[in-house]
Amino acid sequence: MPVHNADVAFIFNRIADLLDIRGDNPFRIRAYRNAARTVGELSTSISEMVDKGDDLSKLAGIGKDLADKIEKIVATGSLPFLEELETEVPPDLSELFKIRGLGPRKIAILHEQLDISTLMDLQRSLDNKKIRQLNGFGKKTEQNMREEFKRLARSRQRLKLSIADEIAGQLVDYLKKTKGIKKVKIAGSYRRRRETVGDLDILVTHGKDAQVMERFTDYEDVKKIIAQGETRSSVVLKSDVQVDLRAVDEESYGAALHYFTGSKTHNIAVRKIAVRNNLKINEYGVFKGEKRLAGHTEKEVYEQVGLPFIPPELRENRGEIEDAQKGELPFLLTIKDIRGDLHTHTSKTDGHAGLEEMARAASRHGYDYLGITEHSRHLKVAGGLDAAELRKHMDAIDRLNEKLDGILLLKGIEVDILKDGSLDLGDDILRELDFTVCSVHSEFSLSRTKQTERIIRAMDNRYFQILGHPSGRLINERPPYEVDMEKVIQAAAEKNCAMELNANPDRLDLNDIYLKFARELGVKVAISTDAHSVEGLNNMRYGIGQARRGWIEAEDVLNTRTWKELKEIFNRRKGFPV
Ligand code: DGT
Ligand code: CA
Ligand code: CA
Ligand code: ZN
């Protein structure tokens, strides 16, 4: 790779920045900036000049020393002097350059006067309104910095799976229309159904003369082409997500799919087994010496290393390989196992569709029952119901049930867990319901101990059935509240309560790790969409993906059961005769 003029200019500017932060001689700093400009604006290639043996010190602002440095950069692509400087200046300090509008001068002031050396320090000083007190900084600067933090957060974020689904779906449809295309498959974390994805990895196979790579980089959503080759290309889409595309031969398709599905740690563990058996495994196949033993399908790749097919959602090296060897992989839940939804809202509170509309939509999903769980009175912003209003709503549900065919509406409530661990509605009304979802909607900042105690205390109520969205997190927006989730799950096991897996792709709460933990303790899980509209019911599939990542089988799930079975479970918990 030839060194471009811009590379040299970049290095000189960076040196100037670092010298500036260090408080170095201003003339020296100026010299580097001038040299950067000279080289940057040259109309001839600096590399070629060096190759021809031109005298660089004839250029404006370039002396003997800088000419030597340029020759070194052209020869090696880097400069030891810059590397030295980088080790002297705290590395985080150079992170501060990511905040646009913050130059070396300002960074130096922040460092000297407020002891800021990391982005986190800067954030803290912003929160404490310390920055505006500095000379040359003001409220306006603070505001700009806040905007910059938001921009950085956005650009650093992984994509929610539901957004990735939308983007990937359209791209796949487009690629499938390529002439001569055969297979199009999304691998990576997307195929493993992780709650967020870093980038998309797409695998294709095609016949002769299919112009797949051209078609890919021509896609109208492409913002930037990072690389374009015959078998692999990378682009950044307008949504800022990177997509890697690889074309492979049919005979390698399974091996490539396995390799690019990952996870990396799963791949490494599988490769270790191969090596132990004197096999080589890579994205082209499984080999003994030069001989290809497998590669067409993932199944035969696994077979060659003595394993059954492992579902992508399990491939995180969390024990799936050991269990596969013992023939003890779980029979993962599928969406066909689901018989109903146990957490939904209607226009009676903050939902958008009426009871009947929701019921008919649930029927179209093939469900046997739909749990109606409006908010309770404490959640005023959502128009939560008090006991009298809830009773009326229950009557309305009874009346509708008489009219409906093939779907049963269950009378439930999403009742607030109050600060002291009591439930927002009295036992006299709760006992009349079919079941409850109990949720934390307030006091998110309690200490870990207090929050844990609060939730466990709520479970002492005999009408407590399901802990709603257990951690309270909103992916990429709000972290979970502080709580000892293992202790909560243990309490659920002791007290026979269920945990919700909220299938809303903004929540996916519980996460995969805790789901697996809950399953190991025999705690039942309710996979619920928390739908506030007819469309919201479609989110069940995200819950299924997350459940599979948590090793969940149909047996572990409440809403794979018939209403008769479910009613028994609920009644047993309430202490009612069954
Ligand atoms: P992401 O994109 O951060 O959500 O996660 P992944 O798992 O999609 O990771 P990515 O896109 O970096 O790579 C896709 C797959 O390629 C990854 O899951 C496994 C495979 N892979 C990537 N790098 C390596 C590697 O160094 N060794 C092995 N064995 N596999 C790798
Ligand atoms: Ca990826
Ligand atoms: Ca990738
Ligand atoms: Zn809720």
Count of spatially separate domains: 4
Structural class by sheet pairing and helices: alpha/beta
Attached small molecules: 2'-deoxyguanosine-5'-triphosphate, calcium ion, zinc ion
Cα-to-Cα separation, first versus last residue: 76 Å
Helix content range: 40-55%
Going across the major beta sheet, what is the strand order?
11-12-13-14-15-16-17
Largest sheet: 7 strands, parallel
Strand content: 5-15%
Mean pLDDT: 94
Quickly count the helices.
24
Please give the CATH architecture of the largest domain.
Answer: Alpha-Beta Barrel
Radius of gyration: 30 Å
Instruction: Using the coordinates shown, work out and report the CATH topology of the largest domain.
Output: TIM Barrel
CATH level-1 class of the largest domain = Alpha Beta
Q: Give a count of the beta strands, DSSP E runs of length 2 or more.
A: 17
Low-confidence stretches: none
The backbone outline, from C-alpha atoms, is globular
Any idea what the CATH superfamily of the largest domain is called? Metal-dependent hydrolases
